[in-house]
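Appendix C: a fully annotated inverse folding record. The material below is reproduced so that readers can follow the format used throughout the book. The structure is listed first as tokens, followed by the designed sequence.
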């Protein structure tokens, strides 16, 4: 019988030729979410040998789904003509968002948002600056830059609550007519002997896009650092995914170091990326090794370039949400550049009741997986929400700095079914508001002519600037608990190092996003503020931040 393979190859080539004429994928809308635009991809039909390779791949992986031209290009390894696509083309994906607006307290006095302990944006911005380019605005999430650093907030009494809440205020460094209000949270850090055993599943992307020293080798070395911290009561499994998915290491006691290291050492990159199957298999391993009362977590390490199998973002998120209900959380470790899918990584971690970090160096891997191991892995409070009500008799306007992607509706605060962020052991979380006091001259918005009068000087709470409420759940519980803290107005508040340094980081992040609200506050001013508030910098992270400011200053001058 005559072989049909040449005919199939001709037919597939014809289809791909037609696909190559269609518009490539650049921005994609998902509800209100917009991916930051990538440069257009020029698609060309594959050669006959390339089609043959594609057919063989489909034969061994029949669930490959080619949903559009860009996915067809990636799944089939379709080349792009060198003259039309530069080698260093940037195809990274970020969610577009606008800065939080200034709001009138008399018209909209309540601000509600979910806490965020992710730090990935800072390390990713550092990677871009150190490679000699300024980051795009959408890559800069100011709250993640602020929360990259630890702050010396009061230690909590775990008998009362799993974290402490403190509030501080001072004159805004970039606008003397407004005030900066800092809400600081510090999680309880249990003694090492009180940390429960961990059941961890390393889910590692070994697709072709992970080939490179800043990708798979960095992931392997980082996971080795973590593995060396575990003991006999802990468990580790290793799952990998590319075109096909497999278990490299069944659940193994954490003190079997040689076995774990050997399993990690055999990983090599190659093939397309079937992330959906990888997640399903990793969660299966986590269920098999489940430790009741312990830490059960999947750690996903990838550049986020999912292009085979379940590539629909909502389907991936639904899968992860279902698994978190069983007590298995998800942490994402992002690596690489050029095709990094930051938005997807952030959303997967949020859906998995976990955190998202970006690993650009082995030192960063050590920070996340060794120094901050307990806060990365152990949750002490879940679904943590903050609601701030501003007193219009005292506050004319306010603006939340950052947390644009964590905004909640006012009614969500009391709804325990609404998911929110989690706090890990020893975590510190910081939120900053810039407020304009009534009559201060710092207002940006004219009051309504026929609006309600804000004057309430005879009110019982006339000396309060704001009222802070927090809701949280003890892990495993379904009913939240409430904490409340009034914020008194202060005549001449002075900034501590905590507030001054957080303000400097916030200013830097805002500058990288365009500096709309920074008045004439320059990078030199930011550097001076951070230098004065550097404080105890044992690990050198704050000193490195000072260097990044200078680097951004040089790159900004070079761009002019």
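Designed amino acids, in order:
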């Amino acid at each position: 019988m005559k072989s049909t393979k040449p005919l199939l190859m001709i037919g597939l080539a014809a289809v791909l030729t037609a696909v190559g004429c269609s518009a490539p994928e650049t921005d994609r809308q998902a509800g209100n979410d917009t991916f930051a635009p990538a440069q257009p991809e020029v698609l060309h039909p594959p050669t006959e040998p390339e089609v043959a390779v594609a057919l063989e791949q489909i034969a061994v992986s029949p669930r490959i789904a080619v949903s559009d031209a860009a996915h067809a290009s990636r799944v089939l390894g379709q080349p792009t003509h060198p003259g039309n696509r530069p080698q260093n083309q940037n195809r990274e994906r970020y969610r577009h968002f606008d800065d939080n607006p200034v709001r009138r307290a008399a018209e909209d006095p309540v601000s509600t948002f979910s806490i965020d302990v992710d730090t990935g944006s800072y390390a990713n911005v550092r990677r871009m600056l150190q490679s000699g380019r300024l980051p795009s605005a959408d890559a800069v999430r100011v709250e993640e830059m602020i929360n990259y650093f630890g702050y010396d907030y009061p230690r909590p009494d775990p008998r009362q609550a799993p974290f402490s809440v403190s509030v501080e205020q001072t004159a805004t460094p970039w606008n003397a007519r407004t005030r900066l209000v800092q809400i600081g949270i510090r999680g309880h850090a249990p003694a090492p002997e009180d940390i429960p055993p961990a059941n961890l599943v390393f889910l590692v992307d070994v697709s072709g896009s992970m080939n490179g020293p800043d990708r798979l080798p960095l992931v392997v070395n980082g996971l080795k650092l973590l593995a060396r911290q575990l003991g006999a009561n802990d468990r580790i499994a290793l799952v990998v995914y590319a075109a096909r998915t497999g278990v490299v290491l069944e659940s193994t006691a954490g003190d079997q170091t040689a076995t774990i290291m050997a399993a990690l050492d055999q990983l090599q990159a190659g093939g397309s990326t079937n992330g959906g199957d990888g997640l399903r298999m990793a969660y299966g391993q986590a269920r098999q090794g489940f430790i009741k009362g312990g830490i059960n977590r999947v750690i996903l390490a990838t550049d986020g370039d999912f292009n085979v199998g379940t590539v629909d973002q909502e389907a991936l998120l639904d899968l992860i949400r279902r698994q978190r209900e069983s007590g298995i959380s998800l942490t994402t470790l992002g690596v690489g550049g050029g095709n990094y899918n930051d938005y997807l990584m952030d959303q997967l971690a949020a859906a998995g009741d976990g955190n998202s970090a970006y690993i650009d160096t082995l030192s960063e891997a050590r920070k996340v997986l060794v120094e901050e191991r307990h806060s990365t892995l152990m949750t002490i409070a879940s679904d943590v929400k903050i609601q701030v009500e501003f007193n219009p008799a005292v506050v004319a306007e306010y603006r939340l700095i950052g947390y644009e992607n964590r905004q909640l509706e006012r009614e969500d605060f009391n709804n325990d079914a609404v998911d929110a962020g989690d706090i890990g052991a020893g975590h510190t979380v910081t939120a900053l508001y810039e407020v304009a006091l009534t009559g201060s001259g710092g207002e940006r918005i004219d009051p309504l002519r026929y609006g309600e009068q804000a004057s309430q000087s005879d009110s019982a709470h006339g000396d309060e600037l704001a009222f802070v409420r927090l809701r949280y759940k003890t892990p495993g519980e379904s009913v939240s608990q409430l904490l409340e803290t009034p914020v008194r107005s202060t005549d001449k508040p002075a900034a501590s190092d905590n507030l001054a340094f957080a303000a400097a980081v916030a200013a830097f992040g805002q500058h990288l996003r365009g500096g709309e609200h920074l008045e004439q506050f320059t990078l030199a001013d930011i550097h001076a503020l951070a230098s004065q508030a550097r404080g105890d910098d044992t690990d050198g992270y704050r000193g490195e931040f000072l260097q990044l400011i200078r680097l951004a200053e040089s790159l900004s001058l070079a761009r002019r």
